[in-house]
Amino acid sequence: MSILDTISQSPAAARGREMATKLALSTASAAARGREVAWKLARSTGKAAWLAGTTLLVLGLPLIIAMDREQQLEQSISEYEAQQSILLGAPVTA
C-alpha cells in the first residue's frame, strides 16, 4: 500500500471529502435561493412598473389633456378680445 492510498483512506481525508460534499450542496442551495429571490424581485419590480404606468395613463393623461384644453381656451379668449378691441377701435393691450 502506497502512502497516497494510506492518506486517501485516512479519517481526515474522509472528513475532508464529506465537508466538500456538504459545501457543494449548500452552495448549490444558496445559488437556488439567490435565483428565487432575484426572480421575485424582478417580478415585483415589473408589477410596480405596470402599476405606475397604468396609473399615469388613467389619471395623468386626462389631467394633461384638460390642462392643454384650458390653455387653448385662454389663448382663444385672449385672441378674441384682441380682435374685438381692434374692431371697436380701442387700443390693443398686451
What does this structure look like?
- The chain is 89% helix and 0% strand.
- The chain has 2 helices and no strands.
- It is rod-shaped, with a radius of gyration of 38 Å.
Describe the secondary-structure layout.
Elements (H helix, E strand, L loop, with lengths): L2 H6 L2 H78 L6
Short description:
It is built from two helices and no strands.
Strand content: under 5%
The percent range for helix content is over 70%
Largest beta-sheet details: none
Task: Tell me the distance between the termini.
Answer: 109 Å
How many E-type strands? 0
Overall spatial form = rod-shaped
* Assembly context of the chains: single chain
Mean pLDDT: 86
Order of helices and strands: HH
Total helical elements: 2
Taking all Cα atoms into account, the compactness measure Rg is: 38 Å
Salient structural properties:
94 residues; mainly alpha; 89% helix
